[in-house]
Amino acid sequence: MGEETVEFEVDGSKLSVAIQGHGRNILYLSASLWFADDSPFAQRLTAHGRVITPTAPGFGPGVVNRRWNQVDDLAYLYLDLIDRMKLTDVVLVGASFGGWIAAQMAIKSCAAFSSITLIDPLGVKVGDRFTRDIADLYGLPDAELRKRAYVDSTVFETDIKKISDDELSRRIRSREALARYGWSPFMHDPKLLSRLRRISAPTQFIWGAQDQIVTTDYGRVYASHVPGATFRQVENAGHLPQVEQSQAVLDALVSFADAHR
Amino acid sequence: MRIFHFSEEPYPDAWGAERPSLRITLPNELCDPDVAHKLYHRYIDEWVLADELGFDIMLNEHHSTATCLTSSASLILSILARLTKRARLLVLGVPVGNRPDPIRVAEEMSMIDVISKGRLEFGMIKGVPYDIEPANSNAVTLMPRFWEAHDLIIKAMTTTSGPFNFEGDYFHYRNVNIWPRPYQQPRPPIWISTATPANAVEIGERGHVMASFMGGVAETLKLHKAYAQGYQAGGHGTRVPLDRFAYLAMSGVALDEAEGRRRCDLIADYLRTNARVADPFNKPPGYFSVDAAMRSARSTNPAAFRTLMTPKGRPVELSTASLDDFIECGIAFAGTPDQVFNQICAFTDGIGGLGNLLLMAQGGHLGPEDTADSMRLFATEVMPRLRNRQEQAQFFDAA
Asked: How large is the average pLDDT for residues B323-346?
């Protein structure tokens, strides 16, 4: 319904951006995990604004600069995107890996954002050096990974016969691209936690109460470093509350965005 | 033809069937240091015997595994550099894309070359999928990192005029100036192993020795043709000397056919256990291309280690294959000396000749007496005939 795709080329990487809906700008940075599909949630968001959903270079079939290997490459790319599209008063939403990118953008500049919602974001280190804060995504068998990610893992199709070629290649590319940007230090930037002090836009954290990829304890420490941030726990949801409890997340997101226009 | 004796220095006491993974997750409390001590001495003795019998020597390294006690090839190489007299010393290889410090690699290899008086054959490898995790290396950027390390190591080994600067995508040094420089000038021969035609072309362009492991006639021939393409494109000429090619296979020999086969069957446990890796460490992200990963996910047996085709087109899954399957595929040579000679000739004729035969003459559960006897028979009964035969053809004909 009125979906438009825009493509940018920056520093040898191609960025594909889907735009759909009308009203305020909502920049949705998806979870980008091979064991999740949160595109239906992005679709639901279009009832509440003009939803802008980029597919990060490497996660789609487009070309990626071989030297890109940090989340900052994507944070700067999306700040470029905001400049090029002349976006203002943006509702910035990021989930999981997308939440990490959103945080890396926000510490650089919040000028374009009216509010920020982070849903179970990755990206910081809170425990000691022997503690694995973030589940070892590449060390867990698929079934165990799904068990940790979902309260009800049957919501995610795993029967290879029922998975289209497009979806299969999306999963394989996501698994690879996520490693490109987050292999080591594993899915975090050691300096991000202390830099969260720079976030000046109103920020809320939404967290699945049963998340076993990054727990609510991790989330609360994360949130405590963002000035004035609120923390909302969503019951009966794992790492992807926007998939498992999409209405509750949608309500929380929209009311927070409305309160901070 | 050069013939190399190879062992992975296995620790088979920990290979019990109840252990689903022999790599990465296997606790080292299962490694009795005294047993390991005796095994190291035994395998080193076998390499020394290889030196005496006229074999050349090959070793490799793997990590976090009971399948291979050589976690540092440099250490065993340095011992052999001192203990052996004549054999070429092939490391195949050093996983230079997984090592954080390529200059350290250049230093160690130069030391070994000098200690051995110029007997080093220096292999650089990409490394198997399950060696990614122990190194915590990012497989997405493995190949560009591999080639950058390759270039830097060669530059370090061949620069004699004092320090140079290196600031690449992955490695940074301001004053590279290794001591000692290699014994062989300007540097030891470089080997690279591969299983894909695309890599074979790149190796050919550089003119290095290319090794392939247990691929059978059809796959090996594809690699050699791809190499020849790269060799020509790299300006090395249209005729590839056979000494640019190496092939690894298993071998068990005895005067009695059944005994030779039994020996090789014990070695073949190496291949049968190779796939025992905790999921998902056998598929690190980015190690395989998107297309290859798609094919694997869609295949009837995505967990299969490797499937080969026999010359007659029958698929053979390596983790469950019989000795006859291995022989048919050209990855095992077993039986009496005559039979082994004929099997090797059939294989090398099928691929248009071979300069370097890498023999896993010890592997799996094969004990020391059987290993030594098999090696002696190979050296006295098979090796001279192979060498005489190879004197005819010295070049690979890509047509």
From this structure: 96
Q: How far is A68 from chain B (nearest CA, A)?
A: 10
The neighbour count for residue B163, using CB atoms within 10 Å, is: 12
Please state the ipTM of this predicted complex: 0.94
- Residue B398 C-alpha from the chain's centroid: 24
A228–chain B Cβ distance below 8 A for any pair:
no
Q: Where in the sequence is the domain holding A175, given as residue range(s)? A: 4-259
If you measure CA to CA, which chain A residue comes closest to B299?
A160
User: Are residues B285 and A169, on separate chains, in Cβ contact within 8 Å?
Assistant: no
Pairwise CA distance, residues A58 & A182, whole Å? 13
Average of per-residue pLDDT across B73-95: 97
Give the CATH number, domain containing residue A143: 3.40.50.1820
CB contact under 8 A, A179 and B136: no
Does the distance separating the beta carbons of A139 and B138 come in below 8 Å?
A: no
How far A184 CA sits from the closest chain B CA (Å)?
Answer: 8
A236 DSSP assignment: T
A237-248: pLDDT as tens digits: 999 999 999 999
Domain count, chain B: 1
Look at chain A and report how many structural domains it folds into: 1
CATH of the domain at B215: 3.20.20.30
Task: Taking the CA atoms of B181, B185, B186 and B191 in sequence, report the sign of the dihedral they define.
Answer: negative
- Tell me the H-state helices in B84-196: 102-115, 132-135, 142-158
Size of interface A-B (CB pairs under 8 A): 56
